[in-house]
Amino acid sequence: xxxxxxxxxxxxxxxxxxxxxxxxxxxxxxxxxxxxxxxxxxxxxxxxxxxxxxxxxxxxxxxxxxxxxxxxxxxxxxxxxxxxxxxxxxxxxxxxxxxxxxxxxxxxxxxxxxxxxxxxxxxxxxxxxxxxxxxxxxxxxxxxxxxxxxxxxxxxxxxxxxxxxxxxxxxxxxxxxxxx
Length: 180
Ligand code: FES
Prior knowledge:
Strands 2-3-1-4-5 form a five-stranded mixed β-sheet, covered by helices on one side. The longest helix is centred in the last third of the chain and has 14 residues, at 160-173. It has helices at 18-28, 40-51, 56-66, 70-79, 99-102, 106-117, 160-173, and strands spanning 91-96, 123-124, 130-135, 147-149, 153-155. Helix 1 (18-28) runs antiparallel to helix 2 and helix 3 crosses helix 4 (70-79). With 180 residues, the protein is an alpha+beta fold. It folds into two domains: 16-79, Arc Repressor Mutant, subunit A (Orthogonal Bundle), CATH 1.10.10.1590; 91-174, Glutaredoxin (3-Layer(aba) Sandwich), CATH 3.40.30.10. Residues 96, 98, 100-101, 137-141, 144, 146 line the site of FE2/S2 (inorganic) cluster (FES).
């Protein structure tokens, strides 16, 4: 059950859509009414799906809506690599370089992607298609090298050939050409 906020605390339409607040309310319904902060991760994910990244305004709005300090929202948003604290390209590729993956070519996959895309970690290709990120363990260490596309699509055993195929596929999806 969602909590009805006073009119002065009603959401600002310019930050998130009514649909986004409805989704957040559904998450809030999973927790006791006095534990609204428990929905912070879901709220951030919903906001990011709509806005594309967690801007300072989004952080402030999530904090206001959940009734928690903005710094606490900021701490969550900056701790987990799935949250974009800056605008990203159309495809965010997050490569796991934690130790188990590093021992099984994770760093090689990261280096190959940097070379292929011509960007470093936390950078976006000039055409705005790809942002490269370094990620923490994704729970698929046995499939190394692994990477995530836009937080949802897990790609396993990413050899150079597999990376080439992925980049070609995503580029084609976007209607462009990146070469092999
Ligand atoms: S260390 Fe990379 S998935 Fe676990």
